[in-house]
Amino acid sequence: MIEIRQEEMKDRGAVLQLVHDAFGQWDESDLIKRLYLEEEVLFGLVAEEEGKVLGHILFSVMEVQSPELILSAAALAPLAVLPERQKEGIGSKLVEAGIQICRNNVDLAGIIVLGDPDYYRRFGFSSELAEKLDGPFTGECFMALEFRKAVLPEGAKIGYGKAFALE
Fold this sequence. Notes:
Layout: E1 3-6, H1 12-23, H2 27-37, E2 41-49, E3 52-65, E4 70-81, H3 90-103, E5 108-114, H4 117-120, H5 127-131, E6 142-146, E7 157-159
Parallel strand pairs: 4-5
Antiparallel strand pairs: 1-2, 2-3, 3-4, 3-7, 5-6
Helix pairs in contact: 1-2
């Protein structure tokens, strides 16, 4: 049976290898390391079965700033599942658990993700919502999920953490 739980330090090696295997490169694993080094991680979750890490999701801190206010949001990146275990719903379980944890955090206004629109729309993410934000990305792959209607102000600037090296 697959268990979704908080990522622990003992998982780090398996997580970094899993993320590499899922993406076929080290870039996303390097991002995870930088996010931890910069202390920008909100939390990570792993999907585990019989002691083996099958999937991983990470949420980090980001800022949503308008002339009137500054809000905190979560950046969802990366999400990875072992290639041989994809299409089994493991990623969906990780996303759903992560969204619930973020919703329970009263300091967060929502979540921003850059990913497959067909995949993330089923969780409530919207590229139309992200379109009204001033972020480093555009297009239908740049999506947002807000926890209260109209909480993300139009024209607000999205600030990813330093680890993303977007500046």
